[in-house]
Design goal:
The chain is about 40% helix and about 15% strand. By secondary structure, it is an alpha+beta fold. A hairpin with a 2-residue loop joins strand 9 and strand 10 (about 250-260). Helix 16 (about 450-465) crosses helix 17.
Length: about 500
Amino acid sequence: MGAQLHHPERDIAAPNAASLVESLRAFGYGLPTALADLLDNSLFAGAKNIWIQFHWAGENSAIAITDDGRGMDEPTLLDAMRLGSRNPRDDRHPDDLGRFGLGLKTASFSQCRCVTVRTCIRKGSVCTRRWDLDHISRTNSWQLLRNASPLASRLSAQLAAQTQGTCVVWENLDRLVSDTATDSDNDERVFLTRAEAVRDHLATVFHRFLDGSCGVRLSINGRQVDAWDPFLSAEPATLKLGAETLLCAGSQIHVVPYVLPHLSRIDPQTHRLAAGQRGWNAHQGFYVYRNRRLIVAGDWLGIRGWRQEDHYKLARILLDLPNALDDAWQIDVTKSRAIPPPALRDELARIGEYTRSQAKRVYSHRGAKLTPAGTADRVFLWEQRAKHNKVFYRLNREHPLLRDVTASCSDKAQLGALLRLIEETIPVPLITISNSEQPDRTSGPFESAKSNEILQVMRQVLASLRTSGLNREDALKRLGTLEPFPQFPELLAMIAEEEDHDDE
């Protein structure tokens, strides 16, 4: 041994336990993503029931996660508590939701300074192991304790009534409840609000396990967590476009594009629920799953610089990855990021382009109905007139916005003079020459404007139409006749949607 320690060509540089364990707390987990990592273990263990308990006691609060999965015997538990218990390069079971052999430990360390795992297999006794970061700091060694605290014993008491299962207890939640008081209603409310954020996150990430098809039930503080289906797959009006299978590094990726129904095709409650935690716009894009567990909940994945825009918000595309593609998709430790490999980007762009176009068509349908098919009913701001064989241009004084501004203006003579000056100084010769010499460089109406800028103008015109005495439906139809708004059916649809919301 001594010869090995003093080998002339190498040193043993073992990590400093007290320092490393503090660094492991900074892996980027939030409370919802950390708990999701623990649920991965429960599901892989075959759990059909998972109970999460948020126990409030001020700075002595705790969180317990109990399941009825297969449990572990003593050697398996010891291995599970070891950091880096699995090599991410090793072949994994196809249903394995883990990867680095770090999830249980780093997820727990990110939220607490003391994590206890108690577990039992069928016809076996309860085994216990505990990581206490304060103990590691004092001893500067990886001493894994074999006992549970009184609180952990109490919170894991349910195991005694089960034939098998595992309970993970987080204590000393220094990043959640430091400087809180047991008798503070506000502190308790904040703590329980975190439980609601966890509920929403887990309902999304594990919705394909909680939808009834897998028989998995999850509850938080005794309340069942219902699946949140981002695709509204049970709605008859949802469009399920053609499913495809892509090949990547010898593995298959299943792709299913969906276009969700227009607001007018679903009830208000369904529409509100489908908006998800972050709203309709933020939930458009690709949904990347790894073994049916959600990794990315709506994102265009950097493809072609696509942004999340209103008229594509009904587009949601399911991507099913096997865990064999973790490296290719750069799945990180927290399982909250995925980056498509370059070889797939063109295929994903093709699928995304088609889905976005269909989503825009559905979203714009309401706007298209507001737009007249011909030009006879359209209202233009500028009018062409002729006098003494000469053509000139005048502002349409009956345009709703111009009429409204004129009526509200206190100095009508000054406004009239400004409008006349604008009419008389239109640079018609310069426009004509520029258009004939470089027709492709002439900008169309609002061509370089952002959607929000056009919407601001639309809203103001609509307000003028309502001021003139038109009801909501007639005002919307009239707005669809005013140039250049018929060129933006998706924005007309958005205005109509806003009006529908205002009426609710």
